[in-house]
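Quick sanity check, Twin-arginine translocation signal domain-containing protein:
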Amino acid sequence: MIMNRRAFIKACGIMTGYAVLSLNMVKEAAASAMDFVGIRQKSVYDADANPKIYKIRKSQDNPMVKKIYDPKTGYLVDGPCGNLSYHLLHTHYVDRSAKVAALKAKGFKLNF
């Protein structure tokens, strides 16, 4: 298809307009995301500054965690890095994508 000069200038004008509009939309999206991050940071800092909101600020100060690891009455008596706590509290990744693909191939509809 051969384009004359008038059609070329018209197409360039339309593409420039779309480029400017999309750039403006990207700037607005980035600005709103940064506003959200700022609001989130302020709320976290305000909660940290006010000890009335959260009385327990560190997990190692939580009385339930201390009770679990207590050598006399707790369940995880070998400590935070012990063998039992490692097996009970740590997770491991298992790749199940082949099984999901096999189910989909059989016609199962998975809702996730």
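Posting the structure with no commentary besides this: The chain has two domains: 1-55, 57-112.
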